[in-house]
Structure formats: C-alpha cells, structure tokens
Amino acid sequence: MLLDSLINLIPELNKAFLETLYMVAISLSVAIIAGLPLGILLFVTDRGLFLENTTVKSILGFVVNMIRSIPFVILLVGLLPLTKLITGTTIGPTAASVSLSVAAIPFFARIVETSLREIDKGVIEAAVAVGATPWMIIKDVLLPEARPGIVHGITITTISLVGYSAMAGIVGGGGIGDLAIRFGYYRYDDTVMITTIVILICLVQIIQFAGDRIARLVDKR
C-alpha cells in the first residue's frame, strides 16, 4: 500500500522538485547579480575605506536591514501586488521567485560584506599605496581574497532559499512545499509529508557538500 502510494506520487514529486529547483535557480541568480555589488558597496563605503561615504553606507544599510527584518511569510504576502505587476500572476513558481529574490538579495549582500571584512586591511592599504584604482582593488584584491567566503555565502543562501521556497507553497507558489501542504497537510497524507521532508534533507546535504568542495577548490590562500 505504501509502495503504491509512492509510485502514484512520483509524477507530482517530480514536478514539485523541478519547480523548487526553478525557483531557487532564479532567485539565487538575482541574489548574486544584485547582492554581490550591493555587498561590495556596503563594505567599500564604510568608514576608513577607499570609497568612504557614510551617507550611502547608512541608506543602504537601513534598506538591507529593513528587508531582512521582515519575516519571509509576511514579505511573501506583502509583495503580492509587485509580483502581480511583474509576472502578471500571484501563483506559481515564477511569481514566488519575485519574493524569494527580494529576500535573498539583502541576505547575500550581508554575507558578502562579512566575507570582505575578513580580509587583512594591510592588503587593501598596500593596494591603495601603489596607486591602484578602486575598480582594480575590488577586482584584483577584494574578490580573489574573499572568494572562499563568497562561495560559502552562496551555499548558505541556496540552502535558505530551499527553505523559503517551501514556505512559498502557502500562497500557491508551487514546489515541494506546495505539495506537502496540499497532499500532506490538507489530506493528512503522512507518506507525502515524510517523502517531502526526506527530499528536502537530501537536497540540502548535496548543496552543502558541493559548496564546501567548491570553497576548498577556490581557496588559494
């Protein structure tokens, strides 16, 4: 009976798993594209650094902290009008990717900023002393030195997005979370609930393992 239930569930599981990967891929790409420069900007505009600007730092820091302070479920509901404007709908994995991206950008930006803070200030001062331009310092000093930390940050962000994508099922975002709610919760199907939990655990373990391996490979220090 249990085996029959699992076999019948395979098409739904396959669809939900692909939707989860789709949501995570879109939001992670947006987080890296927007969050990486935002994190760098938060770092280089800090006091005592080569692009010091307390006004920019304060404004960006406030916006980042404001978004991060909102629980994802509330952010998900609050961004429904924006989601409707961008995607034309409020349900489905594409719609859920909007809220996931908004949540991921400041999260990843703070991780990038923290990774950059771990760089020895003497390395940055030496680059400034030899007349390197800000772009050269960012490209040739900051990013290579912070590469392992940034890779770890991408890993952490990806795992967080897997969890957030499951929450997106509450508002019909699709994915594994939506499957767990529709079948496991509303229909009291323990088989579905346990299966989705196992899939999520395995997915997170694979992501963490891959992230750790890549971080070790890019660490040339």
UniProtKB/TrEMBL annotation:
Domain ABC transmembrane type-1 positions: 17-210
Annotated compartments: Cell membrane
Domain of life: Bacteria
Membrane topology designation: Multi-pass membrane protein
Membrane-crossing residue ranges in chain numbering: 20-44, 56-79, 85-109, 150-171, 192-211
Entry keywords, A to Z: Cell membrane, Membrane, Transmembrane, Transmembrane helix, Transport
GO cellular component terms, semicolon-separated: plasma membrane
Coarse class of the protein's main subcellular location: membrane
Pfam families attached to this UniProt entry: BPD_transp_1
Keyword match tRNA processing: no
GO biological process: D-methionine transmembrane transport
Family: Belongs to the binding-protein-dependent transport system permease family. CysTW subfamily.
Designated name of the protein: D-methionine transport system permease protein
UniProt source species: Anoxybacillus pushchinoensis
